[in-house]
Specification:
Distance between the termini: 44 Å
Mean pLDDT: 83
Largest sheet: 2 strands, antiparallel
Radius of gyration: 20 Å
Order of helices and strands: HEEH
Strand content: 5-15%
Number of strands: 2
Structural class: alpha+beta
Number of helices: 2
Protein backbone atom coordinates (compact mmCIF):
# COMPACT_ATOMS: atom_id res chain seq x y z
CA UNK A 1 0.00 0.00 0.00
CA UNK A 2 2.91 2.35 0.54
CA UNK A 3 3.65 2.53 -3.18
CA UNK A 4 0.02 2.97 -4.25
CA UNK A 5 0.65 6.57 -5.31
CA UNK A 6 3.08 5.28 -7.96
CA UNK A 7 0.49 2.85 -9.32
CA UNK A 8 -2.31 5.42 -9.36
CA UNK A 9 -0.06 8.00 -11.04
CA UNK A 10 0.86 5.48 -13.74
CA UNK A 11 -2.85 4.64 -14.25
CA UNK A 12 -3.67 8.36 -14.61
CA UNK A 13 -0.87 8.87 -17.14
CA UNK A 14 -2.09 5.85 -19.14
CA UNK A 15 -5.64 7.26 -19.20
CA UNK A 16 -4.48 10.70 -20.33
CA UNK A 17 -2.27 9.10 -23.03
CA UNK A 18 -5.26 7.05 -24.21
CA UNK A 19 -7.41 10.17 -24.57
CA UNK A 20 -4.60 11.98 -26.37
CA UNK A 21 -4.12 9.08 -28.79
CA UNK A 22 -7.87 8.96 -29.53
CA UNK A 23 -8.11 12.76 -29.81
CA UNK A 24 -11.19 12.66 -27.60
CA UNK A 25 -10.82 16.26 -26.46
CA UNK A 26 -9.40 19.64 -27.29
CA UNK A 27 -7.63 21.76 -24.71
CA UNK A 28 -9.35 25.11 -24.30
CA UNK A 29 -7.95 28.07 -22.41
CA UNK A 30 -10.46 29.56 -19.99
CA UNK A 31 -10.04 32.95 -21.65
CA UNK A 32 -11.24 31.45 -24.97
CA UNK A 33 -14.59 30.26 -23.56
CA UNK A 34 -17.42 32.36 -25.04
CA UNK A 35 -19.50 34.53 -22.73
CA UNK A 36 -22.42 32.60 -21.28
CA UNK A 37 -20.74 29.21 -21.78
CA UNK A 38 -18.86 27.10 -19.29
CA UNK A 39 -16.31 24.33 -19.45
CA UNK A 40 -17.54 20.80 -18.88
CA UNK A 41 -16.39 19.45 -15.51
CA UNK A 42 -14.39 16.25 -15.26
CA UNK A 43 -14.19 13.73 -12.45
CA UNK A 44 -11.67 10.98 -11.86
CA UNK A 45 -12.83 7.46 -11.09
CA UNK A 46 -10.36 5.03 -9.56
CA UNK A 47 -10.79 1.27 -9.37
CA UNK A 48 -8.58 -1.58 -8.31
CA UNK A 49 -9.31 -4.68 -10.39
CA UNK A 50 -9.42 -8.18 -8.88
CA UNK A 51 -6.08 -8.86 -10.51
CA UNK A 52 -4.61 -5.97 -8.53
CA UNK A 53 -4.33 -3.71 -11.58
CA UNK A 54 -5.15 -0.08 -10.95
CA UNK A 55 -7.49 1.71 -13.35
CA UNK A 56 -8.04 5.43 -13.48
CA UNK A 57 -10.82 6.85 -15.64
CA UNK A 58 -11.44 10.45 -16.56
CA UNK A 59 -15.18 11.04 -16.88
CA UNK A 60 -17.33 14.00 -17.79
CA UNK A 61 -20.07 14.92 -15.37
CA UNK A 62 -22.99 14.03 -17.63
CA UNK A 63 -25.54 15.95 -15.59
CA UNK A 64 -23.75 19.18 -16.51
CA UNK A 65 -24.03 18.63 -20.28
CA UNK A 66 -26.65 19.81 -22.74
CA UNK A 67 -27.27 17.76 -25.90
CA UNK A 68 -26.44 19.73 -29.02
CA UNK A 69 -24.47 22.28 -27.02
CA UNK A 70 -21.81 20.30 -25.16
CA UNK A 71 -21.95 17.16 -27.29
CA UNK A 72 -23.52 15.86 -30.47
CA UNK A 73 -22.50 12.21 -30.36
CA UNK A 74 -22.75 9.46 -27.78
CA UNK A 75 -20.51 6.45 -27.39
CA UNK A 76 -21.67 2.92 -26.95
CA UNK A 77 -19.38 -0.06 -26.74
CA UNK A 78 -19.99 -2.29 -29.74
CA UNK A 79 -19.08 -5.78 -30.77
CA UNK A 80 -16.58 -6.10 -33.59
CA UNK A 81 -17.85 -8.13 -36.59
CA UNK A 82 -15.04 -10.66 -36.13
CA UNK A 83 -16.09 -11.22 -32.51
CA UNK A 84 -19.72 -11.67 -33.56
CA UNK A 85 -18.71 -14.24 -36.18
CA UNK A 86 -16.64 -16.11 -33.58
CA UNK A 87 -19.56 -16.20 -31.14
CA UNK A 88 -21.96 -17.34 -33.87
CA UNK A 89 -19.52 -20.06 -34.89
CA UNK A 90 -19.17 -21.32 -31.31
CA UNK A 91 -22.94 -21.30 -30.88
CA UNK A 92 -23.50 -23.18 -34.15
CA UNK A 93 -20.79 -25.75 -33.38
CA UNK A 94 -22.31 -26.49 -29.97
CA UNK A 95 -25.94 -26.48 -31.17
CA UNK A 96 -26.76 -23.34 -29.19
CA UNK A 97 -29.27 -20.67 -30.15
CA UNK A 98 -28.47 -16.97 -30.00
CA UNK A 99 -31.61 -15.17 -28.91
CA UNK A 100 -30.83 -11.75 -27.51
CA UNK A 101 -29.89 -8.88 -29.84
CA UNK A 102 -29.71 -5.26 -28.81
CA UNK A 103 -29.68 -2.85 -31.73
Amino acid sequence: MADDHVGWSAAERAEIANHAANRSWVYVDRSDVPTGRSLVRLIRVYKRKRSGAMKARLCVQGCAQIHGVDYDQTFCATLRPTSLRALASIAATNGMHMRRWDF
